[in-house]
Amino acid sequence: MKKIFTIRNPEAQRSHMWSARRIEEEIAACPRRSIERIFLDYLPKDSSILEAGCGLGAWVVYLGDRGYDIAGIDHDEKVIARLKEWRPSLKVSRGDIRKLPYENGSLGAVISLGVMEHFEEGCGEAMRETQRVLRPEGLLFFTVPMDNLFRRVLAHPMRSVYLKWRKNRGDSIHFAEYRFSRSEVETLLRENGFELMITTWDDFTEKAMSLGIWADFPPLQSKVPYALTPAGKALAFTMNSISRWTVTSGILCLARKSSTERTALHGGWKK
User: Does 168 reside within a domain?
Assistant: First the structure.
Protein backbone atom coordinates (compact mmCIF):
# COMPACT_ATOMS: atom_id res chain seq x y z
CA MET A 1 0.00 0.00 0.00
CA LYS A 2 1.07 3.53 -0.72
CA LYS A 3 0.22 6.11 1.92
CA ILE A 4 -0.85 9.42 0.35
CA PHE A 5 -0.65 12.82 2.02
CA THR A 6 -2.08 16.25 1.22
CA ILE A 7 -1.86 19.86 2.39
CA ARG A 8 -5.60 19.84 3.19
CA ASN A 9 -6.84 18.93 6.66
CA PRO A 10 -9.77 16.47 6.91
CA GLU A 11 -12.43 19.19 6.84
CA ALA A 12 -10.81 20.88 3.85
CA GLN A 13 -10.55 17.51 2.10
CA ARG A 14 -14.30 16.96 2.48
CA SER A 15 -15.06 20.46 1.26
CA HIS A 16 -12.75 20.07 -1.73
CA MET A 17 -14.35 16.72 -2.62
CA TRP A 18 -18.01 17.76 -2.55
CA SER A 19 -18.61 21.53 -2.33
CA ALA A 20 -17.90 22.36 -5.98
CA ARG A 21 -19.76 19.37 -7.42
CA ARG A 22 -23.40 19.27 -8.45
CA ILE A 23 -25.61 16.27 -7.74
CA GLU A 24 -26.94 16.25 -11.30
CA GLU A 25 -23.43 16.13 -12.74
CA GLU A 26 -22.49 13.21 -10.51
CA ILE A 27 -25.58 11.27 -11.59
CA ALA A 28 -24.90 12.03 -15.27
CA ALA A 29 -21.44 10.45 -14.91
CA CYS A 30 -22.80 7.11 -13.63
CA PRO A 31 -23.52 5.42 -16.99
CA ARG A 32 -20.03 6.35 -18.20
CA ARG A 33 -18.35 4.41 -15.41
CA SER A 34 -17.15 0.82 -15.84
CA ILE A 35 -18.78 -0.21 -12.57
CA GLU A 36 -22.28 0.52 -13.93
CA ARG A 37 -22.39 -2.74 -15.88
CA ILE A 38 -21.25 -4.72 -12.82
CA PHE A 39 -24.04 -3.16 -10.76
CA LEU A 40 -26.72 -3.91 -13.34
CA ASP A 41 -25.50 -7.47 -13.83
CA TYR A 42 -25.10 -8.48 -10.18
CA LEU A 43 -27.05 -6.24 -7.77
CA PRO A 44 -30.06 -8.06 -6.29
CA LYS A 45 -33.49 -6.56 -6.90
CA ASP A 46 -35.15 -8.71 -4.27
CA SER A 47 -33.29 -7.45 -1.19
CA SER A 48 -32.07 -4.26 0.46
CA ILE A 49 -28.86 -2.56 -0.66
CA LEU A 50 -26.77 0.00 1.22
CA GLU A 51 -24.18 2.37 -0.14
CA ALA A 52 -21.90 2.85 2.86
CA GLY A 53 -20.28 6.22 2.28
CA CYS A 54 -22.63 7.54 -0.39
CA GLY A 55 -21.20 11.06 -0.80
CA LEU A 56 -23.48 13.10 -3.06
CA GLY A 57 -25.68 10.05 -3.55
CA ALA A 58 -25.26 9.64 -7.31
CA TRP A 59 -25.51 5.85 -7.23
CA VAL A 60 -28.33 5.89 -4.69
CA VAL A 61 -30.33 8.04 -7.10
CA TYR A 62 -29.22 6.27 -10.29
CA LEU A 63 -29.88 2.76 -9.03
CA GLY A 64 -33.00 3.70 -7.07
CA ASP A 65 -34.51 5.18 -10.22
CA ARG A 66 -33.93 1.80 -11.89
CA GLY A 67 -35.91 -0.17 -9.37
CA TYR A 68 -33.31 -1.14 -6.77
CA ASP A 69 -34.14 -0.92 -3.06
CA ILE A 70 -31.12 1.17 -2.10
CA ALA A 71 -30.28 3.51 0.76
CA GLY A 72 -27.20 5.57 1.51
CA ILE A 73 -25.32 6.58 4.61
CA ASP A 74 -22.52 9.13 4.98
CA HIS A 75 -20.74 10.81 7.88
CA ASP A 76 -20.84 14.27 6.27
CA GLU A 77 -23.89 16.09 7.61
CA LYS A 78 -23.67 18.84 4.98
CA VAL A 79 -23.73 16.34 2.13
CA ILE A 80 -26.79 14.56 3.56
CA ALA A 81 -28.54 17.92 4.01
CA ARG A 82 -27.88 18.78 0.35
CA LEU A 83 -29.34 15.47 -0.77
CA LYS A 84 -32.43 15.85 1.40
CA GLU A 85 -33.01 19.34 0.05
CA TRP A 86 -32.55 18.12 -3.53
CA ARG A 87 -34.91 15.14 -3.12
CA PRO A 88 -36.59 14.88 0.31
CA SER A 89 -37.80 11.32 -0.33
CA LEU A 90 -34.29 9.98 -0.90
CA LYS A 91 -33.31 7.25 1.57
CA VAL A 92 -30.09 8.75 2.88
CA SER A 93 -28.95 9.44 6.43
CA ARG A 94 -25.95 10.58 8.42
CA GLY A 95 -23.97 7.85 10.13
CA ASP A 96 -20.75 5.95 10.64
CA ILE A 97 -20.06 2.97 8.36
CA ARG A 98 -18.33 1.32 11.32
CA LYS A 99 -21.60 1.41 13.31
CA LEU A 100 -24.41 0.77 10.86
CA PRO A 101 -28.07 0.98 11.97
CA TYR A 102 -28.97 -2.42 10.50
CA GLU A 103 -29.73 -5.85 11.95
CA ASN A 104 -27.36 -8.76 11.51
CA GLY A 105 -27.66 -10.35 8.07
CA SER A 106 -30.29 -7.87 6.87
CA LEU A 107 -28.73 -6.64 3.60
CA GLY A 108 -28.36 -8.35 0.26
CA ALA A 109 -25.52 -6.07 -0.86
CA VAL A 110 -23.25 -3.32 0.39
CA ILE A 111 -21.58 -0.81 -1.93
CA SER A 112 -18.33 0.79 -0.76
CA LEU A 113 -16.78 3.04 -3.40
CA GLY A 114 -13.55 4.76 -2.44
CA VAL A 115 -14.35 4.98 1.25
CA MET A 116 -12.36 2.58 3.44
CA GLU A 117 -8.97 3.79 2.22
CA HIS A 118 -9.54 6.99 4.20
CA PHE A 119 -9.24 5.29 7.60
CA GLU A 120 -5.60 5.84 8.51
CA GLU A 121 -5.82 3.23 11.29
CA GLY A 122 -7.08 0.61 8.85
CA CYS A 123 -10.43 -0.73 7.70
CA GLY A 124 -10.88 -3.57 10.21
CA GLU A 125 -13.92 -2.07 11.96
CA ALA A 126 -15.64 -1.14 8.70
CA MET A 127 -15.00 -4.58 7.21
CA ARG A 128 -16.34 -6.38 10.26
CA GLU A 129 -19.45 -4.19 10.24
CA THR A 130 -19.99 -4.89 6.56
CA GLN A 131 -19.73 -8.61 7.30
CA ARG A 132 -22.23 -8.27 10.14
CA VAL A 133 -25.01 -6.58 8.15
CA LEU A 134 -24.68 -8.75 5.03
CA ARG A 135 -26.74 -11.90 4.78
CA PRO A 136 -24.83 -15.16 4.07
CA GLU A 137 -23.49 -14.94 0.51
CA GLY A 138 -24.46 -11.26 0.37
CA LEU A 139 -22.43 -9.15 -2.05
CA LEU A 140 -19.85 -6.46 -1.46
CA PHE A 141 -19.05 -4.05 -4.30
CA PHE A 142 -15.72 -2.62 -3.18
CA THR A 143 -13.41 -0.04 -4.75
CA VAL A 144 -10.20 1.60 -3.55
CA PRO A 145 -7.64 3.79 -5.34
CA MET A 146 -5.02 1.86 -7.26
CA ASP A 147 -1.27 2.29 -6.90
CA ASN A 148 -0.97 1.99 -10.67
CA LEU A 149 2.13 2.15 -12.85
CA PHE A 150 1.57 5.76 -13.91
CA ARG A 151 1.26 6.88 -10.31
CA ARG A 152 4.33 4.94 -9.17
CA VAL A 153 6.51 6.32 -11.97
CA LEU A 154 5.25 9.89 -12.23
CA ALA A 155 2.39 11.08 -10.02
CA HIS A 156 3.69 9.92 -6.64
CA PRO A 157 7.27 11.23 -7.08
CA MET A 158 5.88 14.58 -8.24
CA ARG A 159 3.52 14.70 -5.26
CA SER A 160 6.40 13.97 -2.87
CA VAL A 161 8.47 16.85 -4.27
CA TYR A 162 5.49 19.22 -4.06
CA LEU A 163 4.63 18.25 -0.49
CA LYS A 164 8.25 18.61 0.62
CA TRP A 165 8.28 22.12 -0.85
CA ARG A 166 5.01 23.02 0.92
CA LYS A 167 6.27 21.58 4.21
CA ASN A 168 9.47 23.64 3.96
CA ARG A 169 7.24 26.70 3.56
CA GLY A 170 5.60 25.86 6.88
CA ASP A 171 2.42 24.16 5.66
CA SER A 172 0.96 21.21 7.52
CA ILE A 173 0.77 17.82 5.83
CA HIS A 174 -2.19 15.50 6.45
CA PHE A 175 -3.08 11.91 5.67
CA ALA A 176 -5.39 11.55 2.65
CA GLU A 177 -5.73 7.87 1.69
CA TYR A 178 -4.07 4.56 0.94
CA ARG A 179 -3.57 3.31 -2.62
CA PHE A 180 -3.42 -0.41 -3.32
CA SER A 181 -2.09 -3.00 -5.71
CA ARG A 182 -4.49 -5.60 -7.07
CA SER A 183 -3.04 -8.37 -4.91
CA GLU A 184 -3.27 -6.23 -1.76
CA VAL A 185 -6.99 -5.61 -2.26
CA GLU A 186 -7.71 -9.27 -2.96
CA THR A 187 -5.77 -10.34 0.13
CA LEU A 188 -7.59 -7.75 2.25
CA LEU A 189 -10.99 -9.12 1.24
CA ARG A 190 -10.03 -12.77 1.68
CA GLU A 191 -8.60 -12.09 5.15
CA ASN A 192 -11.91 -10.50 6.11
CA GLY A 193 -14.04 -13.47 5.12
CA PHE A 194 -15.01 -12.59 1.54
CA GLU A 195 -14.81 -14.79 -1.53
CA LEU A 196 -13.63 -12.99 -4.67
CA MET A 197 -15.90 -13.14 -7.70
CA ILE A 198 -14.54 -10.36 -9.95
CA THR A 199 -11.51 -8.07 -9.87
CA THR A 200 -11.26 -5.38 -12.52
CA TRP A 201 -10.27 -1.76 -13.12
CA ASP A 202 -12.53 1.08 -11.99
CA ASP A 203 -12.71 4.23 -14.12
CA PHE A 204 -14.59 5.74 -17.05
CA THR A 205 -15.19 3.40 -19.95
CA GLU A 206 -14.15 5.92 -22.64
CA LYS A 207 -10.45 5.65 -23.45
CA ALA A 208 -10.04 9.43 -23.76
CA MET A 209 -11.17 9.82 -20.14
CA SER A 210 -9.28 8.92 -16.97
CA LEU A 211 -10.39 9.69 -13.46
CA GLY A 212 -6.88 8.75 -12.36
CA ILE A 213 -5.21 11.39 -14.54
CA TRP A 214 -7.98 13.89 -13.78
CA ALA A 215 -7.46 13.47 -10.02
CA ASP A 216 -3.66 13.47 -10.00
CA PHE A 217 -2.99 16.24 -12.54
CA PRO A 218 -5.28 19.28 -12.04
CA PRO A 219 -3.63 21.22 -14.94
CA LEU A 220 -5.06 18.55 -17.28
CA GLN A 221 -8.63 19.10 -16.05
CA SER A 222 -11.01 20.93 -18.36
CA LYS A 223 -13.90 23.07 -17.12
CA VAL A 224 -16.38 20.25 -17.79
CA PRO A 225 -16.66 17.86 -14.80
CA TYR A 226 -14.31 14.87 -15.14
CA ALA A 227 -13.28 15.89 -18.67
CA LEU A 228 -9.66 16.42 -19.66
CA THR A 229 -7.91 19.03 -21.78
CA PRO A 230 -6.84 17.96 -25.30
CA ALA A 231 -3.41 17.05 -23.92
CA GLY A 232 -5.03 15.07 -21.11
CA LYS A 233 -7.31 13.24 -23.53
CA ALA A 234 -4.36 12.29 -25.73
CA LEU A 235 -2.44 11.01 -22.71
CA ALA A 236 -5.44 9.06 -21.40
CA PHE A 237 -6.19 7.52 -24.79
CA THR A 238 -2.57 6.44 -25.26
CA MET A 239 -2.22 4.93 -21.79
CA ASN A 240 -5.65 3.25 -21.87
CA SER A 241 -4.89 1.79 -25.30
CA ILE A 242 -1.84 0.07 -23.83
CA SER A 243 -3.74 -1.28 -20.82
CA ARG A 244 -6.77 -0.13 -18.82
CA TRP A 245 -4.74 -0.84 -15.67
CA THR A 246 -2.00 1.71 -16.47
CA VAL A 247 -3.81 4.86 -15.35
CA THR A 248 -6.99 3.48 -13.80
CA SER A 249 -8.22 5.44 -10.83
CA GLY A 250 -9.19 2.40 -8.81
CA ILE A 251 -9.63 -1.32 -8.38
CA LEU A 252 -13.09 -2.85 -8.25
CA CYS A 253 -13.73 -6.12 -6.48
CA LEU A 254 -17.05 -7.90 -6.35
CA ALA A 255 -16.97 -10.28 -3.42
CA ARG A 256 -19.38 -12.61 -1.66
CA LYS A 257 -19.71 -13.01 2.08
CA SER A 258 -18.59 -16.49 2.95
CA SER A 259 -21.49 -18.78 3.83
CA THR A 260 -19.31 -20.44 6.46
CA GLU A 261 -19.20 -17.25 8.54
CA ARG A 262 -15.43 -17.32 8.73
CA THR A 263 -13.84 -14.95 11.21
CA ALA A 264 -11.31 -12.57 9.74
CA LEU A 265 -7.79 -13.57 10.69
CA HIS A 266 -6.32 -10.08 10.77
CA GLY A 267 -9.30 -7.73 10.98
CA GLY A 268 -8.20 -5.52 8.11
CA TRP A 269 -4.86 -3.90 7.49
CA LYS A 270 -3.06 -2.23 10.35
CA LYS A 271 -0.48 0.50 10.09
Answer: no
In a domain, 218, yes or no: no
Number of domains in the chain: 1
* CATH number for the domain harbouring residue 88: 3.40.50.150
Q: Is 136 exposed, middle or buried (0-12, 13-18, 19+ CB in 10 A)?
A: exposed
55-92 pLDDT, tens per residue? 999 999 999 999 999 999 999 999 999 999 999 999 99
79 located within any domain: yes
Note if the pTM is more than 0.90: yes
